[in-house]
């Protein structure tokens, strides 16, 4: 037989080593040199145009055709000087990754002659023939015209020979077909609502930004070994593979030095990222072997999300140069940690105040508690929906596995803040808000330490944890577009802040002093949102029971979790904030169910093929080898002696028989189950059937294959094993 495994292994080791360029020889790269930043705009665009462009960028003012033309000319000149010959509208379809359609800077003039061309029209708007991007029924193929339009708030950049223009992607009828459009809408919603609330405290606040700092986890595997694993190639995760005897027990990877080959990859990745203006800052090993993390300094959420998506695509490219494949899947390997993408989220004002950090005086602290408590309320009211935003076929493997947050959203605050809120809750308005003779306000309830950052105990098991000056949404999956979670977080908080302002205004209309009105509503919210606060071990069984008692959403079936998008409460919230219309929500869910089904369908097919073509034949061959052995023993020996000498072989032969026949039986069942499921036309129903009937079979088949891996001769086993995949030499 061809020993694919050993062929791959030898390829892996005989390949020429990657040379690490010593620091002083590295080409000097400057931050953002491939980005059309404001500084560059000043060089390439006339002053009078710039004023209008910056107004459009900062305040969302529309750009007219003349300005767009002038900007396009400057942008093209800048890009051409960097060697760009093509341009593309870079957008984020609902598949989760990014899409591009490249065109040369060429067009025909009115006489039909070819000329170099890149006008405002082309900058502004492009019609990718996008009929094959999922739209959940908003566009059917014969009116397949979605168009992409420039998002001036995210700067253009050059990759290779292509000028990339970040764009939104919408249907002609105006519905969003991407993540960026509603994310931008959500930043305006939260801006409007938060500015209104900030003005209770400071009339000078003109704008509130939402910020995102993501931490991207990933695995690296040797490319040669990856090539020998059809499951990794086709599904992004291993569909079979017994745990390695050594994996992460010693936690030696986490604390260990980064292997040299990996370091070379990281160095090049960082250099590329920095040139593209992605402010990457930290890199380190993660808990699992071959698992790593990269994180930038936080940025405004729309830009941060673009940067995350861009980095994910650079990672894939740079990894290949280093003979690696990067695995962004949430759970590439069973039995060891999966990969998440912590979303550090906060809000800040144009006056430079972080609304999630305590301040120096009573007013600032009251403002801090105001925002904190509104966030608790929002997350409490929409906990099921927030879970839906991070749910997917791939993240389902990670959530609830014993090293990741469960499929329940709760909030961790830490001991100090919990005490502060307890005191607020138990105080009367007179005790809570003290106005002295000089009419200065004091908070009579508790001291809020100015620096919570260093004092927050880190509860790693919480899916949504306060970490001193921000919240960390940890349940987001490593392969996800952060936009899905961030646009909903912004939206639920905007919606909540609107309600809050109304309640405070109503009390003030009745003659209540502002601080007391704020206090009264905050106190009420603290009580109402209590069920969402959990300080204990989120991985424990007791928490699941406790959460159910508290009425938190504990659903674990992904297709049913998506229903949260369509509850009357969610529909109203998205409509009130202007983030998504009901039609858009329905189409998004259709896409989500369909994507779920397809992912499971592909896994099921790949597993079926591998089981029947790779595993069963090899197991049979090994079994037949053992049978030969038994026959020979019985030819040479006789009677009891023959029996005795062949006993062990017979045990293994029977075990192989058992696993092989179970595998064959279940693969057949799985094919039949797929046929039944595929006849269902309703996408939701189909996804549910896939979840309920196919997923358990995938798990069962895998169990039996993994048992065979332990029995069959290592020489014969056709796939690289975990111990080979997981330790980079
Ligand atoms: P950790 O201890 O979780 O690894 P880090 O200090 O590495 O935390 O920060 C994680 C991420 O949080 C980084 O991207 C960082 O820029 C981001 N971050 C820090 N402060 C804020 C903030 N106020 N708002 C949003 N993100 C922030
Ligand atoms: Mg973190």
In the CATH hierarchy, what is the architecture of the largest domain at level 2? 2-Layer Sandwich
Level-1 CATH class name of the largest domain = Alpha Beta
| Quaternary status | single chain
* CATH topology group of the largest domain: Creatine Kinase, Chain A, domain 2
**Gap between N and C termini:** 27 Å
Helix count from the secondary structure assignment = 24
Biggest sheet overview:
9 strands, mixed
User: What global shape is seen?
Assistant: globular
- The poorly predicted ranges are 13-18, 20-24
* Amount of helix: 40-55%
Structural class of the helix and strand makeup?
alpha+beta
Describe this entry's structure for a reader.
The protein starts with a helix and ends with a helix. The longest helix is centred in the C-terminal third of the chain and has 55 residues, at 582-636. Strands 9, 10, 11, 12, 13, 14, 15, 18 and 19 form a 9-stranded mixed sheet that branches. Strands 1, 2, 5, 6, 7 and 8 form a 6-stranded mixed sheet that branches. It is 50% helix and 13% strand. With 729 residues, the protein is α+β, with helices and mostly antiparallel strands. The chain folds into 3 domains: 31-178, Ubiquitin-like (UB roll); 187-580, Creatine Kinase, Chain A, domain 2; 595-725, Four Helix Bundle (Hemerythrin (Met), subunit A) (Up-down Bundle). Residues 211, 213, 215, 282, 295-298, 344-346, 354, 469-470 line the site of adenosine-5'-diphosphate (ADP).
């Amino acid at each position: 037989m061809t020993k694919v495994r050993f062929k791959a292994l030898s390829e892996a080791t005989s390949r020429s080593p990657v040379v690490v360029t010593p620091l002083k020889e590295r080409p000097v790269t400057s931050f953002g040199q491939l980005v059309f930043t404001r500084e560059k705009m000043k060089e390439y665009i006339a002053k009078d145009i710039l004023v209008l462009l910056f107004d459009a960028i900062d305040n969302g003012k529309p750009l007219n055709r003349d300005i767009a033309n002038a900007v396009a000319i400057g942008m093209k000149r800048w890009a051409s000087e960097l060697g760009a010959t093509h341009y593309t509208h870079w957008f984020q379809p609902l598949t989760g990754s990014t899409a591009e359609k490249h065109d040369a800077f060429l067009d025909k003039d009115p006489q039909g002659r070819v000329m170099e061309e890149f006008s405002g029209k082309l900058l502004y708007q492009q019609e990718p023939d996008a009929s094959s991007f999922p739209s959940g029924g908003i566009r059917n193929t014969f009116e397949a015209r979605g168009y992409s339009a420039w998002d001036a708030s995210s700067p253009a950049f050059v990759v290779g020979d292509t000028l990339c223009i970040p764009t939104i992607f919408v249907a002609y009828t105006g519905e969003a077909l991407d993540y960026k459009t509603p994310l931008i809408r959500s930043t305006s919603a939260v801006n409007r609502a938060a500015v209104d609330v900030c003005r209770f405290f400071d009339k000078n606040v003109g704008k509130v930004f939402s910020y995102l700092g993501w931490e991207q986890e990933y695995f690296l595997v040797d490319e040669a070994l990856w090539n020998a694993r059809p499951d990794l190639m086709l599904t992004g995760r291993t569909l079979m593979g017994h745990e390695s005897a050594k994996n992460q027990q010693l936690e030696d990877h986490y604390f260990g030095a980064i292997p040299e080959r990996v370091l070379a990859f990281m160095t090049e990745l960082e250099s590329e990222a920095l040139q593209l203006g992605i402010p990457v800052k930290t890199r380190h090993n993660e808990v699992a072997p071959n698992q790593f993390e990269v994180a930038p300094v936080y940025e405004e959420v729309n830009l941060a999300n673009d940067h995350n998506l861009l980095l994910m695509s650079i990672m894939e490219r740079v990894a290949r140069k280093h003979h690696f494949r990067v695995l962004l899947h949430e759970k590439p390997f069973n039995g060891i940690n999966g990969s998440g993408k912590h979303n550090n989220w906060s809000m800040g004002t144009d006056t430079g105040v972080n609304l999630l950090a305590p301040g120096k005086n009573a007013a600032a602290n009251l403002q801090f508690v105001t925002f904190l408590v509104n966030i608790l309320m929002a997350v409490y009211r929409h906990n099921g929906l927030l879970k839906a935003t991070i749910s997917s076929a791939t993240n389902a493997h990670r959530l609830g596995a014993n090293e990741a947050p469960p499929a329940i959203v709760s909030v961790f605050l830490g001991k100090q803040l919990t005490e502060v809120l307890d005191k607020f809750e138990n105080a009367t308005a007179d005790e809570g808000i003290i106005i002295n003779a000089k009419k200065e306000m004091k908070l009579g309830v508790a001291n809020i330490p100015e620096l919570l950052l260093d004092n927050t105990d880190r509860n790693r098991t919480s899916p949504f944890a306060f970490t001193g000056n921000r919240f960390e949404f940890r349940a987001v999956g490593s392969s996800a577009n952060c936009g899905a979670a961030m646009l909903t977080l912004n939206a639920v908080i905007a919606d909540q802040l609107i309600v809050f302002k109304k309640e405070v205004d109503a009390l003030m209309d009745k003659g209540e002093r502002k601080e007391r009105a704020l206090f009264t509503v905050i106190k009420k919210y603290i009580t109402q949102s209590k069920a969402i606060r959990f300080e204990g071990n989120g991985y424990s069984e007791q928490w699941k029971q406790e959460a159910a008692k508290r009425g938190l959403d504990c659903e674990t079936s992904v297709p049913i979790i998506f229903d949260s998008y369509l509850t009357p409460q969610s529909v109203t919230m998205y409509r009130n904030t202007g983030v998504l219309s009901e039609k858009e929500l329905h189409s998004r869910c259709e896409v989500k169910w369909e994507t779920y089904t397809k992912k499971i369908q592909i896994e099921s097919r790949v597993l079926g093929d591998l089981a029947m073509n790779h595993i069963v034949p090899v197991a049979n061959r090994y079994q037949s080898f053992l049978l030969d052995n038994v026959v020979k023993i019985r030819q040479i020996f006789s009677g009891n002696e023959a029996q005795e000498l062949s006993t062990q072989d017979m045990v293994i032969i029977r075990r192989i028989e058992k696993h092989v026949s179970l595998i064959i039986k279940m693969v057949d069942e799985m094919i039949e189950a797929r046929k039944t499921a595929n006849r269902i036309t309703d996408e939701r129903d189909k996804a549910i059937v896939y979840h309920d009937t196919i997923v358990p079979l995938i798990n069962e088949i895998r169990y039996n294959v993994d048992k065979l891996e332990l029995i069959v001769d290592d020489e014969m086993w056709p796939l690289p094993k975990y111990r080979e995949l997981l330790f980079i030499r």
